[in-house]
Known about the structure:
Elements: E1 2-4, H1 5-9, H2 20-29, E2 33-39, E3 48-60, E4 66-73, E5 84-88, E6 98-102, E7 107-108, E8 112-113, E9 116-119, E10 122-125, E11 127-128, E12 146-147, H3 159-162, E13 167-172, H4 183-193, E14 217-219, E15 227-234, H5 244-252, H6 260-272, E16 277-280, E17 288-292, E18 298-300, E19 306-308, E20 314-318, E21 321-325, E22 329-330, E23 343-349, H7 352-362, H8 367-372, H9 381-396, E24 399-408, E25 415-419, H10 422-427, H11 433-442, E26 446-449, E27 454-458, H12 469-480, H13 500-514, E28 518-519, E29 525-526, H14 528-534, E30 546-547, E31 558-559, H15 564-576, E32 581-592, H16 610-618, E33 622-636, E34 645-646, H17 649-663, E35 668-672, E36 677-687, E37 690-698, H18 700-706, E38 713-718, H19 719-724, E39 741-750, H20 755-766, E40 770-779, E41 788-797, H21 806-824, E42 827-829
Parallel strand pairs: 14-17, 28-32
Antiparallel strand pairs: 1-13, 2-13, 3-4, 3-6, 4-5, 6-11, 6-12, 7-8, 9-10, 15-23, 15-24, 16-23, 17-20, 18-19, 20-21, 21-22, 25-27, 26-27, 29-31, 30-31, 32-33, 33-34, 33-38, 35-36, 36-37, 37-38, 39-41, 39-42, 40-41
Amino acid sequence: MKAPVSWIKEYVDLPAEVTTEALTDRLTALGLKLEAIEAAGAGITGPLVIGRVLTQEKEPQKNGKVINWCTVDVGDANGTGEPQGIICGAHNFGPGDKVVVILPGGVLPGNFQISARKTYGHVSAGMICSAAELGLPDDGTHGIIVVPEDGPEPGTDARAFLGFGEEVIEFEINPDRAYALSLRGIAREAALGFEGTTYRDPALRETPAANGEGYPVVVDDATGCPLFVARTVSGFDASAPTPEFMTKRLEQAGMRSISLAVDITNYVMLETGRPIHGYDRDKLQGTIRVRRATEGEQMVTLDGAKRTLSAEDLVVTDDSGIIGLGGVMGGETTEMSETTTNVLIEAAHWEPVSMFRTGKRHKISSEAGKRNERGVDPTICEAAADRVVELLVQHGGATADGGVTVVGTAPASPTITIDATLPARLSGIDVPAADTVAHLRAIGADVVEGSEGTIAVTAPAWRPDLNDPYDLVEEVVRIVGYDQVPSVLPRRATGRGLTRGQQLRRRVGRTLAGSGLVEVVSFPFVGDDAWEKLGLAEDDPRRVTVKLANPLSAEAPAYTTTVLHGLLEAAGRNLGRGATGVALFETQIVAKPSESGAAPIYGVDRRPTEDEMAALFAAVPTQWTELGVVLAGEYERGGWWGAGRTAGWEEALATVRRLADELGVEITVQSAAVMPWHPGRCAQVSAGDVTLGFAGELHPNVCKAYGLPARSAAVALDLDTLISLAPDRTPGPVFSTMPQAKEDVALLVDADVTVAAVEAALREGAGELLESVRLFDVYTSEQLGADKKSLAFALRFRAADRTLTAEETAAARDAAVARATELTGANQRT
């Protein structure tokens, strides 16, 4: 929200010594966070004056461009009183028009210095300025600023006319403070922040009473539209210009001037916070009616978009059909235009939740919708409509009609009972009960003091966010000042520290970080495109997701069932921005829908029964923590010491083994074919009969979809299950002082037999004397055959209490080979 300081001061008399910086500091302390302080004209120096174009000669150039050679009267600003010769390429002005001119010696924003220079065969001494060149909002013409005839005379400094020097404060307004999306609300906060100031409410005005002469309005849904006010004016001059003060203030607030009628409704919205909509009354047909739309109904909104409506949408209709999407955007059929002479003004209060859902559903973001969905003061509809009528009469030559339509009543604010000492008890600030009462009255609340120190507080109509005692505590504390809350060291927390699961998850993170991986955090939301990129089949169970009722993005409306999509997106994004390689990991909670379906919705007037609680818990999606790892691109850097190395499935599987060793879990791997991994380079990771996940090289199509180099690798493990299998205390290594016995064996196996299967068979057959098994060679050749390969393993044996004999070692080796032969069909090579 942008607020000119002069506009704020129209409604509150701030002390003379209060600077803009002091004002913003106090308002920030009250909850209106400062975004920026802007001053129009900053960076412009030198002579900037009003000029009148005397002559304008169009001169076509060889490049096809047509320039204007102008003589401009700038009064005595140039020191001679003679007309100034200026070249200009714009064409939205002509002889006799007043324009804004910067003369030689001046400087425009961006340190653009103006001097007399020869161009297009003339000496151009200055520049005729557009809004963009002066750093001002464009009026839509993208051309020269044409000064109204009743504006300043030639030679006059243009800064005052342009509003230069006016400071504009931009605030970040929290969603619960919709009242501050208006000058009325900001000025009230300013008055709250400085003692002894006088606040003048722009919405406090006498308004005519409702009568039977107003335009007929029927409200079918009083819940969605509790109050509808309609006023009409006749004889409006649509061609009348918007007054300069209004145009400037709209521009300063970040809005573009459109037409007098529209500008007035926008001006009143900024002034009071109440959105207003104007209809061309001559285009209306019959009674205005407010109702819910019929599912599938269609309308064309002011932005020209054809919209299909939901049964939850509130609409405004007449006998011709839908003429507006209530509280969000008007319809095209009754739009005001340059021929409008009779205007109907609508000032209606709309239920905020319905406004939010409608805007979200139709992807409409409007200034009116932004205010209506946050909650607007319902008691000022009559005042806002009357203010619009006043301005239409004053500046558009209209006549106010006598009819006044008021349908419904403004919703009542809640009354909250609170102990007057509660703010002091909760905040630790010494706030006497009398000060609590005074502060709550200062925000506009009606306070009635009761017995035993309690007070009954009726929240002001513009504060729908005040609903319970703790909201009132926050109001008192923010007025006193959060900086007054005493600093108190917290007491030592009771409990036993981290749980076993937390300790092990941290150990996993430290292990991966120690291996050179970087942790990332991605959004756990996906759309159908994620499954396409991962290459999942249509019947893949991972496609069955939990749908979100209110997703952050329509493109990603479901909760993910795998950590890999977000992780691969992060890897591709980093590689796309110049990284030569990435090694990333992420732990993320994933979910799948409950078999019982969606959760039932019960009322809040009672506690659910045991059966209802059981139904609620049964509907909770199944959730677990998944660990993902992605290795792509350069894994070891190359340099003068030698060539580098890229990551592959070997590193992915080594990472899994490292984690399993750290947690003390024995794992086995076997070949698998699961997307998004390469069908021939994917390992299923198991612990006994429990499948933990998969690791290996990604499918080429998946690498391409995510922008990863070929042969990138990934891991996805069920971290909860892995941690549950970890022993309470990981046993340390057992060291023996006895010598080690070494045996190497080479086994001939079929090409499709995995190393893991052979290694597992060797371990099983060798028995307890086996200390380690390591593959040190894989050999293939024409002599062996295309369907055969030779695997060479180093077997190491050791006993804890004795030196092994050659016979014991040979027996263990032979038993290992025999078991490998039995289980995998291996033959020992000699």
